[in-house]
């Protein structure tokens, strides 16, 4: 789980999200593992916003493109460390599903902002979402939580 979806103050702006009823239930059942790749990668809270050019999280993983903040600071290393730690944790814990925050440069699984810091979305994925997908973890976002719940109910 993206830690921010569990109400933890790890977002770049230090804000918190309220937890949905479904997530509260899963949490009470002890089924959730909280993880924030950007904080795990060494970035502070709050931090300057970063974007992945063209939603190309997989290209960042492959060393083809960097991740920069809105100020032009290269934060590629922190993003890669967070993604690697997420995959390590997933392997250690036998994680098969990840529910990650939509549109994040780390966690977005279907879209991210396009790297120009102009509020434009592009189809693609964040760095950790790409890494987990490549590691065989099925990645969902918060709008897809019911879909994930249906899969879990079927024990798939
Ligand atoms: Fe951390 Fe991902 Fe949430 Fe961003 S979206 S605060 S990287 S858990």
UniProtKB/TrEMBL annotation:
Pfam families: 2-thiour_desulf (PF04463)
InterPro entries reported in the protein's UniProt record: 2-thiour_desulf
PANTHER family: HYPOTHETICAL CYTOSOLIC PROTEIN, INNER MEMBRANE PROTEIN
Protein name (Swiss-Prot/TrEMBL): Uncharacterized conserved protein YbbK, DUF523 family
Native source species: Halopseudomonas yangmingensis
